[in-house]
Amino acid sequence: MSVSSLPKYDFIQHQDEYINKEYGHLDGVELLNVVLKELFVGRVAATTSFGTESAVLLAMIAKVDKHTPVIFIDTGKHFSLTHDYRQQLTQFLGLSNIQVVAPKAENIDRLDPKGDLNQRDADLCCNLRKVEPLDRVITGYDAWITGRKRYHGDERTKLQSIETVNGQSKINPLAGWGKTEIDRAFAQWKLPRHPLEKRGFPSVGCQPCTNAASCGGGLRDGRWRGSNKTECGIHKPRSNRVIPLIVK
Ligand code: SF4
Fold first, then answer.
1. Does a structural domain hold residue 187?
2. Residues in the chain with pLDDT values less than 70
């Protein structure tokens, strides 16, 4: 059977096998060049949280194509400093296609009218405020660029540069990068830092679920502290998700 006659999912699996074979040795700007300029022209978007390390991936994207769609999920729970940083970094890098997605008002009204759902059911809150809004947009692309890295730990320790999830190619150009490489890129490209980093936040997400670093904790130790939760769910296989009562 030729690759082109395979069902879509198998086709994407074979496509990623091919991409891995041909380009699996690349990372960073080199991999982005291939992805944005050859493999997925006009069919790929990136996501960012405008967190403490986001500037590195965004700088690389800007070096290859400043018009790349970059999706930011405005959960309604971000630090105001994150919004300030978004403006600053977007302008600094000259990115021209930042797409902001947000939860639907009817879902907020029904499931989180008081804005305290994160304290009662953090998974549902993330589904409502992150997973559903992003799904609405990211499913329109054949490939998705993320800034995840193996050194972040937990579910990310086995992350590959190129993977297939939910029938979509996921490109992780910084999968193998560590803190040293990230800091070097910040210095080399004179990138502005998230203002909360110098206040002791090594990783920044939504305000109610982000704490400053604890002694000896990992990079993402301050996220959802006191619970077993380590991920918001946007990267989970769709078949594993339970999203009750949410209007799509
Ligand atoms: S990180 Fe916290 S506030 Fe943000 S969507 Fe998830 S549970 Fe809700």
1. yes
2. 1-13, 214-222, 224, 239-248
Catalytic: 206?
A: no
- Ligand 1 is surrounded, with C-beta below 6 A, by 75, 77, 118, 122, 125-126, 129-130, 205-206, 208-209, 232
Distance 129 CA to ligand 1 centre (A): 7
**119 located within any domain:** yes
Catalytic residue among 125, 126, 206, 232: 232
Ligand 1 atom, smallest distance to 205 CA = 1
CATH code of 196's domain? 3.40.50.620
Could you read off the pLDDT of 180-219 as tens digits, one per residue? 999 999 999 999 999 999 998 988 999 999 988 765 566 6
Can you give the pLDDT at residue 72? 98
- Pull the structure tokens for residue 116: 């305290």
For residues 68 and 72, what is the distance between their CA atoms, to the nearest angstrom? Answer: 13
User: Is the residue at 247 inside a domain?
Assistant: no
Residue nearest to atom 4 of ligand 1 (CA): 206
Number of separate domains in the chain:
1
Phi-psi group of 26: left, alpha or beta (phi > 0 → left; psi -120 to 50 → alpha; rest → beta):
beta
Residue 17: burial class (beta carbons within 10 Å; 0-12, 13-18, 19+): middle
User: Which is nearest to 148 in space by CA: 165, 128, 125?
Assistant: 165
Determine which residue's CA is closest to atom 5 belonging to ligand 1: 126
What's the pLDDT at 248? 67
**234 inside domain:** yes
Q: How much is the pTM?
A: 0.90
In which domain, by residue range, is 41 found? 3-240
